[in-house]
């Protein structure tokens, strides 16, 4: 696997969503996917919201003269306040002309760096009309663009306010409790952890305090760990075993910091049994001496429950920073709610059904995971554009707000160096594996027309840097063509 697709979220930043005031989780919506073919103009307006960037110098207050005044006169610091805000995102215009992409794309797609298989699809966001495609129905490995499928499916079925629970119930004896894993991999030990910046959720300390309160301050002797909600292989089909060391963790329905040994690093070593480690950390906080595997008895009294951040925040994290472990956890949570089981096969069924419900032709599509780490996944460029067109008119339209902005945020913060004019014009999810590169999202033409696009390259021998530069150049060329 290549690591360049997955930027360090401590560096690749974007304004995180604020958490809702009310912590109570929304009830999951279990209805099947709905077919939404129309595209809302209102979504386009939302995508055109300007993000302001303040110059660092304009934020430095020179207050020493006020703290110890010598004259009683306050001198306004130079460059304060900023003279004007700087727009980041290009603005859209629903009346802008539809570009003639046939006049520009064949030459752009002929870039020498794209000497493998290439699938391309461009559609008008307002009308849904396909403006150009090249091998658009050819199934290829999508790499991390697969996370767009995961995000849309989760938002469609669970809703933006859904939270993942972690519960503790009474154990089989008076001096025991059972921790029932629910699928949350973003827990922290004490409230500060890897996911705190974007997806600040629950802590083991909070859970332990609630359990002790429910037990009148008496610590149990034993904590039983119930992970029976996840019964599948901890590694999705096709994912290299070596990827479980730093690119992701062996899947489990209960983790702290996504199973990372060092919660300050994205590509830290991962624990081989992250659920067991988290259970031992919980037992230490609770004052329990023993951790053992077990299953909660039917009807066992609930002692405490804590919840993850809302799904909208989890989607932000997994899309912006391309977090593999979180993407798989969210996809499996969707499978649990819709299919009643947390398995890779159930995940695949839900994702395929969701795409079909949004108007996507599923011919040749194969999904083995929700992260895109498996090189055996298959998706088409047409499938991605159809998916986003369907999402724009449905409850999953929030996915557009999570897409990285070229040159500014997420995995695109350090891209488009050779295509500067595309910065702030392109918003897209990246995808990178060995021999695989993809770019899926939206762009705004120089005239203000909003387009949805997907580019997938497999098997190019020119190297990752050359392929990514070519994809960036294609998106930018379309945006600037004025054709």
From TrEMBL:
It comes from the Bacteria. The chain crosses the membrane at residues 39-61. Gene3D superfamilies: DD-peptidase/beta-lactamase superfamily. Pfam families: Peptidase_S13. One of its GO terms (molecular function) is serine-type D-Ala-D-Ala carboxypeptidase activity. Keywords: Carboxypeptidase, Hydrolase, Membrane, Protease, Transmembrane, Transmembrane helix. It is an enzyme of class 3 (hydrolase). InterPro entries: Beta-lactam/transpept-like (IPR012338), Peptidase_S13 (IPR000667). Residues 1-36 are annotated as: Disordered. Its EC number is 3.4.16.4. PANTHER family: D-ALANYL-D-ALANINE CARBOXYPEPTIDASE, PENICILLIN-SENSITIVE CARBOXYPEPTIDASE A. Belongs to the peptidase S13 family. This is D-alanyl-D-alanine carboxypeptidase/D-alanyl-D-alanine-endopeptidase.
């Amino acid at each position: 696997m290549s690591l360049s697709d997955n930027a360090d979220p401590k560096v690749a930043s974007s304004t995180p969503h604020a958490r809702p005031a009310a912590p109570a989780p929304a009830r999951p919506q279990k209805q099947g996917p709905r077919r939404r073919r129309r595209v809302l103009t209102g979504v386009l307006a939302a995508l055109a919201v300007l993000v302001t960037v303040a110059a660092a110098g304009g934020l430095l207050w020179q207050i020493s003269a006020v703290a110890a005044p010598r004259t009683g006169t306050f001198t306004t610091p130079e460059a304060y306040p900023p003279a004007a805000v700087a727009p980041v995102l290009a603005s859209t215009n629903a009346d802008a002309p539809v570009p003639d992409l046939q006049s520009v794309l064949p030459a752009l797609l002929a870039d020498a760096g794209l000497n493998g298989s290439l699938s391309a699809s461009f559609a008008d966001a307002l009308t849904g009309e396909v403006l150009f495609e090249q091998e658009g129905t050819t199934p290829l490995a999508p790499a991390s663009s697969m996370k767009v499928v995961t995000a849309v499916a989760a938002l469609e079925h669970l809703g933006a306010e859904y939270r993942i629970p972690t519960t503790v119930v009474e154990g089989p004896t008076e001096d025991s409790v059972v921790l029932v894993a629910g699928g949350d991999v973003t827990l922290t030990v004490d409230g500060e952890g890897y996911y705190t910046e974007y997806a600040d959720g629950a802590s083991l300390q909070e859970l332990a305090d609630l359990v002790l309160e429910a037990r009148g301050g008496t610590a149990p002797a034993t904590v039983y760990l119930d992970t029976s909600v996840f019964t599948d292989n901890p590694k999705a089909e096709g994912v290299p075993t070596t990827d479980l060391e730093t690119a992701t963790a062996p899947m489990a329905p209960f983790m702290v910091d996504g199973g990372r040994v060092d919660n300050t690093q994205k590509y830290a070593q991962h624990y081989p049994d992250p659920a067991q480690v988290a259970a031992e950390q919980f037992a230490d906080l609770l004052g329990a001496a023993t951790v053992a595997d077990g299953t909660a008895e039917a009807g066992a009294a609930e002692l405490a429950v804590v919840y993850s951040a809302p799904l909208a925040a989890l989607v932000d994290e997994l899309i912006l920073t391309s977090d593999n472990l979180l993407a798989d956890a969210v996809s499996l949570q969707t499978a649990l709610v819709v299919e009643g089981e947390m398995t890779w096969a159930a995940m695949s069924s839900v994702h395929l059904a969701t795409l079909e419900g949004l108007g996507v032709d599923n011919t040749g599509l194969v999904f083995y995971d929700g992260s895109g780490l498996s090189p055996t996944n298959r998706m088409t460029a047409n499938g991605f554009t159809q998916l986003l067109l369907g999402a724009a008119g449905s409850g999953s339209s929030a996915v557009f707000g999570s897409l990285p902005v070229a040159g500014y945020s997420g995995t695109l913060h350090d891209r488009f160096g050779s295509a500067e004019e595309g910065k702030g014009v392109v918003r897209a999810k990246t995808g990178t594996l060995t021999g695989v590169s993809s770019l899926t999202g939206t762009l705004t033409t120089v005239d203000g027309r909003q387009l949805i696009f997907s580019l997938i390259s497999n098997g190019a021998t020119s190297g990752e840097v050359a392929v990514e530069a070519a994809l960036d150049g294609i998106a930018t060329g379309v945006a600037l063509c004025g054709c």
